[in-house]
Amino acid sequence: MNPRAVVRRLYGEGPLHLLLTAASFALAGYAGVRLLAGDAVGVVVWFVGAALVHDLVLVPVYASADRLLCRFADRRPGLVNFVRVPVLLSGLLLLVWFPLITRQAERYEPASGLSPDVFLGNWLLITAALFLVSAFWLVVRTVRLRRRQTKGRPSASH
Amino acid sequence: MTTILAHTPSSSGYWRSPVRGVRFTAVLGLVLLIGITVLFVTGLLSYAAYNPDLSPVNDKTPGKGLLGFYLFAWPTGPHWLYRLTQGLHVTLGIVLVPVLLAKLWSVVPKLFALPPARSLGHALERISLLLLVGGALFEFVTGLLNIQLEYLFPGSFYPLHFYGAWVFFAAFLTHAALRMPQAVRVLRSGRLSEASPGDPLESPAPSAPTISRRGALAVVGAGSLVLLITSVGRSFDGPLRRLAVLAPHGVDEPGSGPGGFQINKTAAAAGVTTADTGENWWLTVSGPAGNLRLTRRDLMAMDQYSAALPIACVEGWSTSDQRWRGVRLSDLAVLAGYPDGVPGLLVESMQRSGPFRRAALRDNQVRDPSSLLALQVNGEDLTPDHGYPARIIVPAAPGVLNTKWVSRLTFGSL
Known about the structure:
The complex is a heterodimer. Chain A is mainly alpha-helical. Chain A has three domains: 1-35; 39-72; 75-158. Chain A has helices at 3-11, 15-35, 40-72, 80-101, 108-112, 117-152. In chain A, helix 4 (80-101) runs antiparallel to helix 6. Chain B has two domains: 2-229, no CATH class; 267-411, Oxidoreductase, molybdopterin-binding domain (Sulfite Oxidase, Chain A, domain 2, Alpha-Beta Complex), CATH 3.90.420. A five-stranded mixed sheet of chain B has the order 2-1-10-5-6. In chain B, strands 3, 4, 7, 8 and 9 form a five-stranded antiparallel sheet that branches. In chain B, helix 2 (22-49) runs antiparallel to helix 3 (81-95) and helix 2 packs antiparallel against helix 6. Chain B is elongated and about 80 Å long. Chain B starts with a helix and ends with a strand. The mean pLDDT of chain B is 94. Chains A and B meet through helix 2, helix 3, helix 4, helix 5 and helix 6 of A and helix 4, helix 5, helix 6 and helix 7 of B. Chain A: The chain crosses the membrane at residues 16-37, 43-62, 82-100, 120-140. Chain A: Keywords: Lipoprotein, Membrane, Transmembrane, Transmembrane helix. Chain A: This is Lipoprotein. Chain B: It comes from Streptomyces fulvorobeus. Chain B: This is DMSO/TMAO reductase YedYZ molybdopterin-dependent catalytic subunit.
């Protein structure tokens, strides 16, 4: 039996996989020991917790919200994206900047000399603008569809 | 039993989005491959820019070992170097958030796949994926919190983000090496919208489509674009900064006039008072010539030079070039007893706290004719928030090495 086949039978993947994975764990271990040198428990909680919170909280929450939205828009499936996209973009901005938007970041003002009070208002204005753009887009699309339909139909008066 | 299984996340029938598919994932994966490589390289450059191997006061990761293998003397030119590399690092990181989230969404069914491990190789790969996903999120979250000055993470940002990056990158390299050939292959083999034979990510029972794969990618791109527009301006002055309406150090300047540009830490936050900076202030210059005491008037009487240099922060924001005026560090080295052959320099600030209240500059930085102990900026005396009575300004150096409220310069011994 050739060595390649032996590795594949015992290990389940090819020899390149084994080498790369071993190298990866060695490097991750070297850096990981240093990463854990301080508050080891805290770092593990953050590292693993980040993955768990993402996979078991964030994804289910936005996926369920999306499913709910689709159910509401059941009869008009073409409308879903006109709500979905602005909500998603607005939510993304909140996710990235929530410490400033919610004024949690208490060090910001004394350190920078800048007020964080502008961020909540700006976020709400951006959200409003996203919905307006979406609404405008929907109106344009609807008008175009109507025109196309009336053009396609024979005139009723003759 | 089968109907129950069809309703758990472990069954492929549970995941019904018709957007998922190996080609959709491949597009996002290739974007991340390029983007994260740039993030890693610019991150390593930022680490080198601190000159951590120069002096213990610069080194927030003394246990780095071989991870600092590539360190080099950070250059002083071009003078916008750190502004570029760090602006790129942080802005690109912000812009990649939706790409990362979409990538993770696209492969989430694999997280729940059963059996947990088909073989030893598969088990190791899944552990490696935990490092990959946990590491990516850890790096993005610590970075995003740090630029908002929300230090919730368990420890100092520098070691967490640096060592975390290496753990993540170890897993990232393997993942890229194992998956990139497949990603390229599936993208070459057909259109994004088409089914790919034997696609492990495609739902066997997809729901009615509400958006195409192309449309979903466009939404991800729109997310990146919105984040870019609302944050890139923090690396510029004027109307662009006003456009950075959600980003820290966006929107406004902290003041008006010659000293109205961005501040990393105000005098009040640093605990520096007018009693420290008033008439009683003097600068101690130490070296082989002994300890010299120089008042601000003494410094003003020395040859004054100008340099147009930006402030560029590790947090990714920066200012345009400001016109600094003051004494050359190389002239002060001569005073300290180094008539030829300028040495390194230890700078001490009056600020009460902060990890960089003492910082070391390398000889190439002290030697540069644009490196000043600045007394004025934009034609006026420094403001208290910009380091009055005297501050360091060095071309291409990270903001924290441009020490404010300087009290002591020690040439030669770091």
